[in-house]
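Hello,

Our lab assistant flagged a job as stuck in the queue for most of the afternoon. It eventually completed. Since we weren't sure the result was trustworthy after the delay, we are filing this so someone can double-check. Below is the sequence as submitted and the structure that was eventually returned. Let us know if re-running is recommended.
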Amino acid sequence: MSICVSASENVKRGVREEFDAKAAHYETNRLAGWYKAHNNIIAAHLNPQKDDTLLDIGCATGYLIRRTLGMYPGMSAIGVDLSPGMVAAARRSAQDMSDRVRFFCDDWDAPGSALRDALQKRDVDLAVCASGFHYFGDPVGALRRIRQSLAPGGALLLLERRRERSLPTIAWDLAHRHLIRDHVRFYTSAELCDMIGRAGFSQHEVVRTVRKIFWKNKVSSNLILIKAVR
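-- returned structure --
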């Protein structure tokens, strides 16, 4: 994320190509402020210890990792993204932190051996996923893998668009279900919390919601941030 290309693989190939094309200007384009705001919302709720390990799933160009490791010099991080272009940009931007962060171009729906080995060799204290959850083909399975990667008491911060009270998000969800016919889905707050519970997290809570019009060059934003603890 085979010589036999499935519908799911076609979707993921499209996602790779889309974000590869955006990688060079991802932190400077018209919506850069919107994406950075998502990461800043997460960062405000991380509360890491000085030697924690951060796992960023869907890390893009590594903005949140750079921001966090810059503030906490004892921390280390693992970044995962499906897009080779994004991972290459992340590695370039974090060259001065290369001894503290490893980036993997991989599919969290089916992680490769190198990523699995890296996660087995260290305890992850904090995991984040910013606006990428809707791409998972098996969302509960993805959440279970996150939980398994966390040390006991470790936390996930999941920021995602929520479907309720958002006509654009409802429209996109319907388009993906009935026109595009792929596995991309947008969920309600209740559906997200239900999946987190089914994935085995011991507790979870909604720590912030954002509902704004014409915010950060985006016409409509309707976001939820959920904290889940292993």
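-- support follow-up --
The delay was a queue issue, not a problem with the job. The result is valid. The first strand starts at residue 53 and ends at 57. Strands lie at 53-57, 76-81, 101-105, 124-130, 150-161, 203-215, 218-229.
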